[in-house]
UniProtKB/TrEMBL annotation:
Pfam families: HGLS. The keyword Chloroplast does not apply. InterPro entries: HGLS. Its EC number is 1.13.11.93. Its cofactor is Fe(2+). The keyword Iron applies. GO terms for molecular function: dioxygenase activity. Keywords: Dioxygenase, Iron, Oxidoreductase. Signal peptide: none annotated. This is 2-oxoadipate dioxygenase/decarboxylase. Belongs to the 2-oxoadipate dioxygenase/decarboxylase family.
Length: 381
């Protein structure tokens, strides 16, 4: 992406009148209550808007390149500048996620205390409504703009869902940080096939997405700020959606917030790099794992191993004044084993591309249950 194009796009999106309208409009008010037992008070995420320069936690800074720069220097600065901005947005999404999900925050701290190493994210996941422009494309456009590539589509007929995952750009600058400041993660975006739902559920989803107007153009911004792009729903309508699709109910109250991040266990250095060990470690610390289909989800080829916690809950104030606990997000773990053709490589030479890539419908179908009522009731048992 050219710097001039990036700045023009960003300035057009985030002009002063747009921001004033965004923050003053009631549909963007956060419905999550800070007095919930499972809610950590959140400071407003630092979301960098473009000026002369963009800086990151690592001290990197991109300045507008003068005409005296060579073409190679300009291209290199362009990549660094846009990636720094991109990572800042991811960082805001991560901040919102961690502030609302104490289990995820605690697990990241626990793993780091044992492993004493940087944690890499395998992927970050989002949920969407496949209607009124709010489907996969609405969130994917942000990642595609920054060099991500669309990969395999997955279908979940029983849940009336489809998903698409995206691989990070190959020209990403090397990073040795943790989380969003480490290797760029894959992105997994799912979508509810609204047209396959009952007329009542369709009507509710369509009505709320329509209240957002062109909010589908700003789903990444909404995720980074932790706000809905539509009006807060009625509790009775949340219940209607939950009775038919817990995925739909989750998305109605959480919007485009990060659904989960996934720790890449094989990138750890301690014994926790084995997913069975990290599962045992999590349970020994009194935290519950999603038991749907067994704690450990294994792909048919045996090369992709996944597990996840049960989602945290948070108090949500509905538009009719009713306050109820609703499921929020969770954290996942993934171990990608070395492909058969590379099994003879020394461990020190194994790279990520030598390992099993992609996702597995059977695994993902069970991981979706991390926000289900059945799993949440286990958590409270």
């Amino acid at each position: 992406m050219k710097i001039s194009t990036m700045f023009s796009s960003i300035r057009n999106t985030f002009n002063s009148s747009t921001l004033s309208s965004f923050f003053s409009h009631n549909s963007y008010a956060s419905p999550f209550l800070p007095n919930s037992q499972n809610f950590i008070s959140m400071k407003k995420p630092s979301f960098p808007f473009p000026g002369i320069s963009i800086s990151s936690k690592q001290g990197r800074c991109f300045s507008v390149v003068s005409g005296s720069k060579s073409e190679d220097d300009f291209q290199n600065s362009s990549i660094q500048g846009s990636e720094t901005f991109f990572r800042s947005v991811l960082g805001s999404m991560e901040s919102v996620y961690l502030s609302r999900n104490p289990t995820a925050k605690a697990i990241l701290e626990l793993v780091q205390s044992v492993d004493d190493n940087q944690i890499s994210y395998d992927h970050i996941a989002f949920r969407t409504f496949g209607v009124n422009g709010y489907g996969i494309d609405s969130m994917a456009s942000f990642f595609l703009d920054f060099g991500y590539t669309s990969q395999e589509e997955l279908r979940f007929p029983a849940k009336k869902l489809k998903a698409l995952w995206f691989s990070p750009p190959s020209n990403s600058l090397p990073r040795n940080g943790s989380g969003v400041n480490g290797p760029l993660p894959r992105i997994f975006i799912s979508e509810l096939l609204v047209d396959q739902m009952s007329p009542q559920t369709q009507a509710i989803i369509r009505r709320y997405t329509e209240t957002s107007g062109s909010g589908y153009k700003h789903t990444a911004l909404a995720s980074a700020l932790g706000n809905l792009t539509w009006e807060k729903p009625l509790f009775s309508e949340f219940q209607q959606l939950a009775s038919e699709s817990e995925y739909a109910a989750w998305t109605l109250v959480n919007g485009h917030a990060v659904n989960h991040v996934t720790i890449s266990t094989h990138r750890l250095k301690s014994h926790l790099r084995n997913i069975k060990n990290i599962n045992q470690f999590i349970e020994e610390n009194g935290l519950r794992l999603n038991s749907e289909g067994g704690v450990l989800k294994v792909s048919p080829d045996g090369l992709l191993l996944q597990s996840s916690t049960v989602a945290d809950s948070v108090s949500f104030q509905f538009s009719d004044g009713i306050t109820e606990s609703v499921p929020c997000s969770y954290i996942e773990f993934a171990e990608r084993l070395v492909l058969p053709q590379y099994r003879n490589l020394p461990d020190t030479e194994v790279k990520e591309f030598h390992r099993r890539d992609g996702f597995e419908v059977g695994n993902a179908d069970k991981i979706f249950e991390s926000t289900s009522k059945e799993q949440l009731s286990r958590r409270g048992a």
